[in-house]
Structure formats: structure tokens, C-alpha cells
Design brief:
single chain, 4 strands, 20% strand
Length: 95
């Protein structure tokens, strides 16, 4: 899905087992009754580092961790940082 993203190649296939304690749901999509929530998934990549990805309600991956983490707690902290960035500004490149 993300050929230029090195983390995509490290992600387990959908048939691989993910860590059962590593699924974190966000709030359901406003205005859509019964829609599944966005969900964070954490997993270990091929070199044993923890990574996360965020899937939308339609099961598409919409965000991934930009790095691998040596321990699970740091990976979870990365998710918390993303969750707390709701007031971060959006910038466009100037040409």
C-alpha cells in the first residue's frame, strides 16, 4: 500500500497474529451510526522493534509510526503523542 514507506514492508500480513493487548480504539465516526471506530494496532517488525499503524473505519491504513521502538512502552507513548496532537497546526509548503 505504501511502497515508498519502509514501515509498510515490515508490517505483518493481515493473516499474521497481532499482539492481543495491542489494539486501541478511538471514538466512532460522528454522524455514522454503527460505524466501527478507528483503531491503533501495534506489532513487532522483522527486526523485533515495536511499530504502530492506525486503521480507519473502512480498514484502510491511514497512519503509521515513522520509526521502530525498542520497547512497547515507547511505542504506546508515540500513539499517545499522536492522539494529543489535535491542536497541532497544518502547514502547506510554500512555492
Amino acid at each position: 500500500m505504501y511502497p515508498d514507506n519502509p514501515t509498510a514492508a515490515d508490517a505483518p500480513s493481515e493473516t499474521n497474529e497481532l499482539c492481543a493487548s495491542a489494539v486501541f480504539s478511538c471514538a466512532p465516526i460522528p454522524g455514522q451510526k454503527g460505524s466501527p471506530p478507528m483503531t491503533y494496532f501495534i506489532y513487532k517488525d522483522k527486526v523485533g522493534e515495536w511499530r504502530w499503524r492506525l486503521k480507519a473505519a473502512n480498514n484502510e491504513i491511514i497512519a503509521v509510526s515513522g520509526e521502530g521502538y525498542g520497547n512497547k512502552a515507547d511505542c504506546l507513548h508515540g500513539i499517545d503523542l499522536v492522539k494529543s496532537s489535535t491542536n497541532a497546526p497544518v502547514q502547506e509548503p510554500t512555492t
